[in-house]
Amino acid sequence: MKSDTEELAERYADFKPGFRLLAVEQAAIPVFSVTASVLLQQRKPIAPINEYVLRSIQQGMEDPKLISDFMGLERESLNNAITKLWQSDLLDVSNEGGVFKVRLTSEGRSSLDELAEVVPVAQDIWFTFNRLNWKAVPVSTNKLLDQKSVDSGDYIKVKPLKKDRPGVVDFPTKELNQAVKVSMGIEMSDVDILVVKGVEQTDTKFLSCCLLVYESTN
Q: What's the pTM value of the predicted model, to 2 decimals?
């Protein structure tokens, strides 16, 4: 049975016209395992009372008193529900001639369609940051090697692009969302990162790879 190195050598032997493959070497790419504090946008099921309030408003009941009478709710309970929905940007609240009116926002209508509301959640996340291209990458932190494993193994160490440690400006949310979903799995499947608040920890790690060494035939 052929080793992984032998299979790579066969596959990429003629990959570069005008070059001959000399060797396939085990190497270690420098990365950081980063822990950061972020603000997430998470979709959660709507509580029953909030759903009924939204549906009442959807049916044209813009006066909280009408909603209270229709649902048989105490005004304090209804006001608490309306306040929470307003804070989640699901309702607009206005004062028209001394009478409070409530209306659905576009987010409120979407929440009713999906029976879920979007809420901000503060949380710590962890992900892999590639020091060669200086960005977060979708690689599980479970696959990373520590310094001791690389030093004791037969690895060629690849030099990083920078010696600095990354900051919040180095984490565009689009790249970060992809990276975190791989590192943290199903825990992050229904959330999106809104803001990176701070970097808590950056641990030096390595990712195992193979280097293809070619020689010109010209």
A: 0.66
What are the angstrom distances between the C-alpha of 30 and each of 40, 155, 191?
Answer: 28, 12, 28
Contact between 46 and 54 (Cβ < 8 Å)? yes
Residues 15 and 54: their CA atoms lie apart, in Å, by 61
Which pair of structure tokens corresponds to residue 194? 């809104």
Question: Based on the number of CB atoms within 10 Å of its own CB, is 74 exposed (0-12), middle (13-18) or buried (19 or more)?
Answer: exposed
Residue 67: how many CB atoms within 10 A of its CB? Answer: 22
The phi and psi torsions of 157 (rounded to 5 degrees) equal -85, 125
* pLDDT above 90: residue 43: no
Percent of the chain predicted with pLDDT > 90: 35
CB neighbour list of residue 97: distance below 8 Å, 6 or more residues apart: none
